[in-house]
């Protein structure tokens, strides 16, 4: 699910953090969203309406009393058109007015008439944020169903440091994606466990056996699943990527740590899993012993004895209680791609395996995959960015879940 053609009502109130919201408006527009910016009079003192108009290529609304037309009926049209409303920054004043149900400007009237999900992003001085009145108003809005994106701690407009700093646009964008998915995605009510990245098997405190996996495929799957409304547990080896906003994140290093994390996610979490996607490049071998001290360079190279790591998916093949679990594996091969992938599919009792050529996929931002289902159904795709590949994989997951349910 993308943001293309999604209607977002972006309310901007009068705080210094309004300048950051220009970046948010730009990012939303860049991803294809239709952004209706609604500004309070105080907000226009910080950023001009022209700035938002130039970034969104759409009309900016500042006046409750502007004339209605057949196509544009002021706050009524804005409220009905919105699939999601976001107020950033949300000052103590706008929070108080929303909590009281006041409708005395274009922003409050639009929000009062809007039935879409609402995200409120408070930003203000620490004492204002922590004041009992502000906290009570936020509690009231939360009880009515609004999602409150808590402010961070950092440098404020006064020069002091404290709570009240607005989150960065990237984080707000993550919650927008999450809220839209929870409202209309095709994986609402489903829980996915996704593994990502490579594992590291220590030789000594500074060296390890590993692979070139960047984690991009697994993280793209997690982000795409969240945007489709799923509850996502992401179990990741060491990578240089930020976990997607809204996922339950578990960091691991070794194959055995990943196996334990997958077991906990499957058998100890209160919410049962519907899908397990093993996108991680788990090391097949590990050293029999790991030195507590750095192995010193000598005239001869040390002999390293290896042993097999656990087969995480294979170990779940006959596990009781997982009869309804949809299992998706990955096969990165250097030769005989289809034959080796199908062998893994059958040996590990998978519903589907994603086959890709190892050298051209691991560490790259794009991928060419073949989806092989149980029963020999094969679907090949052209090379695409990994985010697009993630959508194709989840399309098939949705289809397979429907068949399992039927």
TrEMBL record:
Q: Where is this region: Phosphopantothenate--cysteine ligase?
A: 192-406
Q: What gene makes this protein?
A: coaBC
Question: Region (Phosphopantothenoylcysteine decarboxylase) spans which residues?
Answer: 1-191
**A single GO BP:** coenzyme A biosynthetic process
Task: Give a yes or no for keyword Coiled coil in this entry.
Answer: no
* Pfam families the UniProt entry points to: DFP, Flavoprotein
The UniProt record lists the keyword Ligase = yes
| Example of a GO MF term | FMN binding
Reported cofactor(s): Mg(2+); FMN
Top-rank lineage group of the source organism:
Bacteria
Family the entry assigns? In the N-terminal section; belongs to the HFCD (homo-oligomeric flavin containing Cys decarboxylase) superfamily. In the C-terminal section; belongs to the PPC synthetase family.
Which keywords does the record carry?
A: Decarboxylase, Flavoprotein, FMN, Ligase, Lyase, Magnesium, Metal-binding, Multifunctional enzyme
Question: Per the database record, which ranges form the DNA/pantothenate metabolism flavoprotein C-terminal domain?
Answer: 188-399
Provide the function of this protein. Catalyzes two steps in the biosynthesis of coenzyme A. In the first step cysteine is conjugated to 4'-phosphopantothenate to form 4-phosphopantothenoylcysteine, in the latter compound is decarboxylated to form 4'-phosphopantotheine.
Q: Which PANTHER family match?
A: HOMO-OLIGOMERIC FLAVIN CONTAINING CYS DECARBOXYLASE FAMILY (PTHR14359), PHOSPHOPANTOTHENOYLCYSTEINE DECARBOXYLASE (PTHR14359:SF6)
Q: Which residues form the Flavoprotein domain?
A: 7-177
Gene Ontology CC terms, in alphabetical order: phosphopantothenoylcysteine decarboxylase complex
> Cofactor: bound how, per the entry note?
Binds 1 FMN per subunit.
Which protein are we looking at? Coenzyme A biosynthesis bifunctional protein CoaBC
Q: Which reaction does it catalyse?
A: N-[(R)-4-phosphopantothenoyl]-L-cysteine + H(+) = (R)-4'-phosphopantetheine + CO2; (R)-4'-phosphopantothenate + L-cysteine + CTP = N-[(R)-4-phosphopantothenoyl]-L-cysteine + CMP + diphosphate + H(+)
* E.C. code: 4.1.1.36, 6.3.2.5
Return the InterPro entries for the record: CoaB-like_sf, CoaBC, DNA/pantothenate-metab_flavo_C, Flavin_trans-like, Flavoprotein
